[in-house]
Description:
Blueprint: H1 3-19, E1 33-38, E2 40-41, E3 47-53, E4 56-62, E5 70-72, H2 73-78, E6 83-85, E7 91-93, E8 97-99, E9 101-110, E10 113-123, E11 134-136, H3 138-141, E12 145-149, E13 154-158, E14 176-179, E15 181-182, E16 188-194, E17 197-203, E18 210-213, H4 214-221, E19 231-236, E20 239-243, E21 248-251, E22 260-263, E23 267-270, E24 284-285, H5 287-290, E25 293-298, E26 303-308
Parallel strand pairs: 4-11, 5-10, 17-24, 18-23
Antiparallel strand pairs: 1-13, 2-3, 3-4, 3-9, 5-11, 6-9, 7-8, 9-10, 12-13, 12-25, 14-26, 15-16, 16-17, 16-21, 19-20, 20-23, 21-22, 25-26
Amino acid sequence: MGQGMARLCALAAGLILLAAPARADEKSCALRRVTTVDMGIDAVGRMTVPMTVGGQTEAMLVDTGGLNTMLSESAVKALGLYKSRIANVRITIYGGTPVNYFTTAHDIAFGRLKSPSMDFLVLPEARAMAGIGGLLAPDILRAYDDDFDFANGRLALFSPDHCEGKVVYWTKDPVADIPIDIDDIGHIRVPVTIDGKVVRLIFDTGSVDTVLSFDQAQSVFGFDEKSPDLTVVAKDGDRVVYKYPFKTLSFGGGGEAGMVTVANPKIFLTSYDVSKISSSQSAILGLGILRQLHLYIAYKEHRLFVSAASAH
C-alpha cells in the first residue's frame, strides 16, 4: 500500500469514528433517532446544516454525491489549522478540480454526535462557495439512515439497526419504497420515471439542478436539437445547456408500495459531461426536485423511501 493510499485509509477511519452509531439492542428493532439538526436552504438553493469545529460553527453543504467530508480553505485558515499534503494519490472532485490537502481539526460536534478530533479533506479555493464552510459527505452520512424532512427543515440520523423496511414514521399515507444501488464511495443511483421512461440518476443533494446528458436524453426520449419544445438556456463554447418541458418525474411503481410524482420537473440537458470524472455524473437528481419530497435513505438495506414533503 502506497503512502497516499494509507493516508486515505487513515482519513476514512477518523471520519467513521465520528459516524459510527451506537449498537442497537439486538432484542429490539424499533427505529432509533441518533441526532437531529436544523437544515436551511440558502438563496442559491443549497442545503446546509451546522457543524461545530474547534468552537466555531460552520455551515456544511449536505452532499450525498460528494467524496469525503471537507472543510473549505477559508474555514481552515480561520481556525488556524495546519494543512498536510496528500502524497502519491490523485483525488479529483466535480469539475476536475484536484484535492491536494487534508487537515486535522478538534472538538467536533454535529448535533448530539461529538468527536475530540477528526480529519477533513480541504476543499480547494477554486471550489469555494459563499457562506459554505465545508461539505458533509457520504463517508459520514452512510453510517446511518438519513431522514430529510424538508417540510419541517430537519435532517435526522437514525440507527440502521431496526426491522427491515420499518422506517416510515412520518405519515400513514402510501410511501414509495425504492431499491437503490450504492457504490463503494456511497453514491446512490435511484430509478425514476420521467414521462413514462425509466432513467437512473445519481441522488445528489450537493447539486441544486437535476441534469441529464443530451445524448442520454436523445436516446431515451427520441428528440434532437431541432425539437420545437427544446430551449437553449446557456451556451459556452462547445457546451450547450437545454431545457425541455417534461411533464412528470415519479418515484416507485404504484400499488401498495405507492408512487410519488413531481409535476413539471425542471431538468436541464447538457451537451457534454461537465463533471470530467465519469459519464454517470451527467445524470444527477438534484435538490430542486428532492426538496419537494420527504426522503428516508436506508443505506444498509439499499432502499429509499419517498413521500410528498407535506405528507403527515
